[in-house]
Amino acid sequence: MQASVAVSKYRTKSESRTAFTLMLPVLLFFLVFQYYPILKSVVISFMEYGLLRRETPFVGLQNYVNQIQDPLFVSALINTLIFVAVVVVIGVVSALFLAVLVERTGKWAKLYRTLYFIPVVTSLLATSMIWRWLYASNGLFNFLLTYFGLEGQSWLLSEQLALPSLMVLTIWKNLGFDLVLFSAGLQAIPEEFYEASRIDGASSFQNFLFITLPQLKPIVVLVGITAIIRSFQVFTIILAMTQGGPLNSTRTIVYHIYEQGIQYDEMGYASAAAVILLFIVGIFTFVQLRLGREK
Q1: Which of 268, 286, 275 has its CA nearest to residue 253?
Q2: Is residue 53 part of a domain?
Q3: Is 54 in a helix, a strand, or coil?
C-alpha cells in the first residue's frame, strides 16, 4: 500500500516537472514579446524619448500632465468613450438577439453562424476600403437613399456622421464573433429547464429572462470584456477611412498614440497616452468582472 502511494506521488511530481518544462518556453515568449514591451512603454513614458533622438532626459510625470492638458488627447478620449459605449452595448445586445434566433432555426443554424462569421475572418483593412466606397458620395448607401427619394449624405466628411458610420462598420464586423460565443453558451443550457418551464406555462420572454440570461451570465461577462478591449483598440478603420477627421471627430486614443509616436517621433509622449489607455481598460475590466461575479 505504501509502495503504491509512493509511486503515485513520484508520478505526480514527474508530471508537474514535465508540465513546467513545457510551459517554460511559452512563459519566456510572453515575457519577451508581451510583458517586456509593456514595461518598456511605462519606463519611456517618464522620458522625453524618441527613436531619432540621441538624448532621452527624464521628465517625470510631465508627459502625463501634457496629455491631460492636450485638447487633442481630450477629444480622442471623449470620442473613444462614446465609441466604446455605443459599439459594446448595441453589438452585444444584437449578437445575443441574433444568437437566440439562429439557434431556433434548427438545421439551418450552422449555415447562419457561418455567414455571420465570415466578416470576422475577413481582412479588416480590406473591409475598411470596401466600406469606404459604400460611404462615398457615389457609393451604394447614397444610391439607395436617392433611389427612395431621400437626400444623400456625406458620411465620412460630416462631423456628426463620421463616428457613427465607423460604429456601424465595427458592430457589423465583430457581430459574428460574439454570436458564435453566445451560440455555444445557448447550446450548453439543458433542454430540461425549458421543458419544465413550458409545463408551468411560462412564456418565451419569461424563459429568456429567467433561464437563458442567468445561464449565459459567464458568456455575457466574457463577451462584454472582449468587446470593451476590442473597441478601445480601434485603429485600422480610423487610419484607412478618416485619419481622425473631419476636424478630429473620429480621433481615438490609439490613433492619437500612433500619430504622436510614429509620425512625430514623440515616443515618450505617446507612451504616456498608452499607459493611460491601459489604466482605463483595466478599470473597465475590473468593474465588469466584479459585476459579473457569482454571489
Answers
A1: 275
A2: no
A3: coil
199 pLDDT band, cuts 50/70/90, is confident
Q: Shortest CA distance to 50 belongs to which of 257, 271, 274, 266?
A: 266
Q: What is the pTM for the complete model shown?
A: 0.88
Span 53-82, pLDDT tens digits: 778 899 989 999 999 999 999 999 999 999
C-alpha Rg value of the chain to the nearest Å: 25
- CA-to-CA distance for 205 and 102, rounded, in angstroms? 16
Question: How many domains, in total, are found in the chain?
Answer: 2
**Beta carbons of 225 and 285 less than 8 angstroms apart:** yes
Is 51 within a domain? no
What pLDDT does residue 12 have?
58
**Using one digit for the tens of pLDDT, what is the confidence trace for 15-30?**
566 766 777 787 787 7
With vertex at residue 167, the alpha carbon angle to CA 161 and CA 172, rounded to the nearest 5 degrees, is 130
Query: To which residue does cell 498614440 refer?
Result: 257
d(CA 44, CA 119): 37
